[in-house]
Amino acid sequence: MTENATVHSSTPQTKRSSVPQLLRKAGGIYLLIAIVVLFGILEPDTFLTARAAKTILNQYSVGGLLALSLIVPLSAGVYDLSIGAQASLSSVVVAVLISKHGVPYPLAIAITILIAVLVGLFNAFVVVALRVDSFIGTLGTSAILGALAVGVTSNKTITSAAVSGSFQKNIALRNFGGVTMPVLYLLAAMAVIGYMMEQTKTGRQWYAIGFDADAALLAGVRTQKLRVGALLVSAVIASIGGIALTARVASGTPGAGDPYLLTAFAGAFLGATQFRSGRFNAWGTVFAVMLIATGGYGISLTGAPQWAPKVFDGVVLISAVGIANIGGMRSSLPKWLRIRKNAGTGAQSSTVAVSADTTQQTQMEKP
Amino acid sequence: MLDAATRRVGHGDLSIRNLSKTFPGQQALDSVSLDVHPGEIHALLGHNGSGKSTLIKILAGFHQPDAGGEVFVADESLQFGAPQESLRAGLRFVHQNLGLVGRFSAVENIGLGGYTLKRGRRIDWHTQTAMAEALMTRLGFEFDLHKPLDECRAVERTAVAIARALDDRSGAMRFLVLDEPTAALPPAEVDHLFDLIREIAHQNVGLIYVSHRLDEIEMLATRATVLRDGRLIGTYAMAGLQRRELVSILTGSEGHDADERGVGRVGGRSEVAYRVQNLRARTIAGVSFEIARGEILGVAGLAGSGREDLPTAVAAVDETAVDQLLIGAPRGAATDMAEFAGVLDAAQMRRCGVILALGNTRRDAAVRRFSVRESITLPVLARYRRRTRLQRSAELQASTKWVNELDIAPKDVEREFNLLSGGNQQKVLIATALNQNPTVLVLDEPTAGVDIGARSAIYQLIREQAAANVSFLIVSSDIEDLISLCDRVLVLRDGVITDVLPRHRITKGDLLTAINHDPTGSETND
């Protein structure tokens, strides 16, 4: 961003990022500080340690990957509710291939990702070709994938010496000062998706069709192709999340990936309120997942019952959408999530009123 | 000039006294006072950003004004910031977008604010229908009230919005605010609306009429209040006020005339830029025409004449077929004309330089959440790419050039499209199209919702580009656009061309006659 300011100093003002501005763009930092202070006081011996930080990172790397997988379709205006089931299926498929069929683990991973691509194509077929609403379509896929995971495992947890051997060691346990491999996958996925969304033509066009598919189409954007691509990306990254999950726990259990769906949504929506206000973005999403992770971990340390962190996830998801609604980021949300106040005359929605206000103020700035 | 601030509150009037509104860092309204009498049609004039909308939103209860201001409705002080209070006081609003549900019928829409219920909390459709019928009859409209509004005429939709304002279950309507009611209305239906407005005024309702179209104000209003930069310029009696005076009051400058025509145009063009035979799409039954290089060709027609579908048809966004189509080579290229037949492809049209800029009134004209920079570069992103990475500096350079050239305000390319005024949004749409190096630029409603200043800037820009050999197809329901800009005008009706007006016949009278003329000879009832 700073490069622009120097290139065109005499022309329209460009925005320069500064520390205060960064704080304003990432209001979640205050929440993070509050959480750290709260649990720092409640559990000073266990919470404020490097070990706790590493545990948080390691534990939530899978949730982070799933959240990242979501932001591509969400940016492009498509829901992918099948990522949790996709992770579950990938988790058991890689375990079954290694344990029951003796497939070497690199090949097993490759096959698993290939299956994920097929699932992504199936989603694309349902959503793009059959024009089923993505919310419904991917929900359907999710049910099918869940059933398949049960089918290939006969509803048993799959584990073997091979899975807990070199596979687990190389894919998950190898670490760099306590930070394990899945964290690196998360950071790599963040870098790649962040680059794609913000620096490439494809990313810009994904945002365009997410905001207004009709307008994008009129601007010559190939909306169908881009939606197919978005669903493929989410399937593959969710699958990597599933494989990492199996490697972490050295077993594949049907349904093990399902609970991450909620974390992923909470992370993606809270992430959209951070850094690039109003747009789903990679940096904000990873930050948001870590915020959720810190809160969840802190709650579990206090000896709260096992269900308590889940409550925190749910609260975060609702608040993220709520904040976006109140904070004027309404239009980044899908239409049915936006607040609509009844205007009394019945002739105007609040959305119209608010956008008109800002127009008003903007024009006033003219000399 | 009548000084409302010091005048006593008139009996039965809507009296606005010293109303101010400060937004953070911005005085949107600065001690404005005015009176509207019952039964009067009072025009509220001012450019985009003059404070009109703020004033209306205060009246509607959306904004809380600064302390010190007061509004009286028939001697009763209005409580601010509560839409229900405004409603109860008898203030009604018909906003530009009408706020109707397109898939609902007139009956459903009219009841939307609160249906009459019967036992078991079921909606009493019988009463609801009777009420809708009574209201529409009172407005002098007769059409199928159970048909979805999407299938009704534009003026019928406006009438439904007004009928809903008339619904007196929450108290009688005393004052009605109409915000740009003709913006989306075809010319032939405007007269119908005017009759309706006069009828409402006749029923002793005071009307505040907001419009950018001065001819409408001259036809309808008895008095006009002008706002500029949030301040009251004055309230004027319309009788005897010259157009030129009104324009100079509005713009605050002398001799600013949006009507000047053909400035700096070059004549004698013969080279063909676009020639089509038997173009068919949606409501277009088959039209043939050609555009010379640098020519500005206009298209006029009633709603439903095929006019609305022509821009998207020429760009082949809708399924479009032709017998033959010739498109001239892009500017500066040495290649021959491109030739097509059969079904057209949108990407092909774009590659040949046929570029569409939809009017800002169409929702899908732009990705409204994008910045100015992102909007301008979206159709040609590949141009700003090096390997896989978009070069932000190249994007900035291109968008900055357009912002300067078209004088888009504020000069901030990172500003969200949504946050610009209507006129500036329209300029961005045109910039986006020009940035694609068009051979033929198809402009749909280029000045809808645009104030006079921006309108003449857009006219000037179109003339300059035409002089630089860009060909234009201007499809507009605003006769002023056609009169001020066009070299020829095609008139559409029932999907075919019924008339072609040469330059000397492009006058208001000739245009209206041609648009309303039914070649089959039967009486028109539009």
What's this model, at a glance?
The complex is a heterodimer of chains A (367) and B (526). With 367 residues, chain A is mainly α. Chain A has helices spanning 2-7, 19-25, 28-42, 44-47, 50-59, 61-75, 83-100, 105-129, 134-153, 161-173, 181-199, 201-211, 213-218, 223-249, 260-271, 282-301, 308-326, 350-364; strands at residues 175-176, 179-180.
N- to C-terminal separation of chain A? 27 Å
- CATH class membership of the domain at 272-366 and 438-516 in chain B: Alpha Beta
Helix share, percent of chain A: over 70%
Query: How would a crystallographer describe the biggest sheet of chain B?
Result: 6 strands, mixed
Shape of chain B: globular
Counting DSSP E segments of at least 2 residues, the number of strands of chain A comes to 2
Helix content of chain B: 25-40%
Transmembrane segments (chain A): 27-44, 56-75, 105-129, 135-155, 176-197, 228-247, 259-275, 282-299, 311-328
Pfam family, one (chain A): BPD_transp_2
GO molecular function, one term (chain A): transmembrane transporter activity
Keywords (chain A): Cell inner membrane, Cell membrane, Membrane, Transmembrane, Transmembrane helix, Transport
Can you describe what's shown?
The complex is a heterodimer of chains A (367) and B (526). Chain A has a single domain (24-341, 349-364), classed as ABC transporter involved in vitamin B12 uptake, BtuC (Orthogonal Bundle). Helices cover 71% and strands 1% of the residues of chain A. Chain A has helices spanning 2-7, 19-25, 28-42, 44-47, 50-59, 61-75, 83-100, 105-129, 134-153, 161-173, 181-199, 201-211, 213-218, 223-249, 260-271, 282-301, 308-326, 350-364; strands at residues 175-176, 179-180. A two-stranded antiparallel ribbon of chain A has the order 1-2. In chain A, a hairpin with a 2-residue loop joins strand 1 and strand 2. In chain A, helix 6 packs antiparallel against helix 16 and helix 15 packs parallel to helix 17 (308-326). Chain B has 526 residues and is an alpha/beta fold. In chain B, 30% of the residues lie in helices and 25% in strands. In chain B, the strands form 6 sheets. Chain B has a 6-stranded mixed sheet with strand order 6-9-10-3-11-12, sandwiched between helices. A 6-stranded mixed sheet of chain B has the order 18-21-22-15-23-24. Chain B has a 4-stranded antiparallel sheet with strand order 2-1-4-5, with helices on one face.
